Amino acid sequence: MRRNKLKHFLLLFSMLSVLAFFTFYTFRIDLTEDNRYSISPYTVQLMRNLNQPVHITLYLNGDLNPAFHRLRKATTDIIDDLSKHTRFAVSTTHINPSQAGTEEERLQIFSDLAERGLTPTEVYMRDKEGKSMRKIIFPWIEIETDTRKIAVPLLKNLRNKS
Q1: How does strand 140-144 pair with strand 149-153?
Q2: pLDDT tens-digit map of 16-34
Q3: Is 152 helix (H, G, I), strand (E, B) or coil?
Q4: Domains of the chain by start residue, with CATH
């Protein structure tokens, strides 16, 4: 009986230890053949050499279909992985350009983004009633430091491929 209690205690203790370990330490294993989810050694070195904070604005937010939810999740995971390799903070902001008070404000936001080179993508989705609807999304991130700001597309241009 006493031996049984000891086994149960050790099992419980080991399970709690593993749970506590993985709560504070996260990692991902990239099993893809081309290592598409791995950060290259060059990128790690680049992040370590940063001498100022970085702010990343992700414009892929809001009511999205499952494919774009996965893209947003993968993007935030990569940003989190990159932030582990820098001495300075990597802050992120998630913006839904479609969410504005009025239609005029929304069109102004779209115009401002387009002027900066962030071209929108039209997505056709079904709403809860099954009706087809068109959404305009901006699958882009902007990476900004004190001295520089660049826009990075999250999708390849596949206009002629559809």
Answers
A1: antiparallel
A2: 988 888 887 777 777 788 8
A3: strand
A4: 39-161 (3.40.30)
Question: 17: which 2 tokens?
Answer: 């230890």
* H-run or E-run covering 126: strand 121-126
Q: What is the pLDDT of residue 161?
A: 42
- What order of strands is seen across the sheet that includes strand 149-153? 90-94, 54-58, 140-144, 149-153
Residue range 102-115: mean pLDDT, rounded: 90
Instruction: Please state the rounded mean pLDDT for residues 78-103.
Output: 88
Helix (H, G, I), strand (E, B) or coil at 146: coil
154 neighbors 71 (Cβ within 8 angstroms): yes
- Please give the structure tokens belonging to residue 92: 């992120």
Residue 144, beta-bridge partner list: 55, 149
Q: 119: which 2 tokens?
A: 């071209």
Residue 83 exposure: Cα atoms within 13 Å on the Cβ side: 15
**Confidence category of residue 157, pLDDT binned at 50, 70, 90:** low
Tell whether the model's pLDDT for residue 139 goes beyond 80. yes
Q: Are the beta carbons of 154 and 143 closer than 8 angstroms?
A: no
Residue-by-residue DSSP string for 30-82: ---TT-TTSPPHHHHHHHHT--S-EEEEE---SS--HHHHHHHHHHHHHHHHH
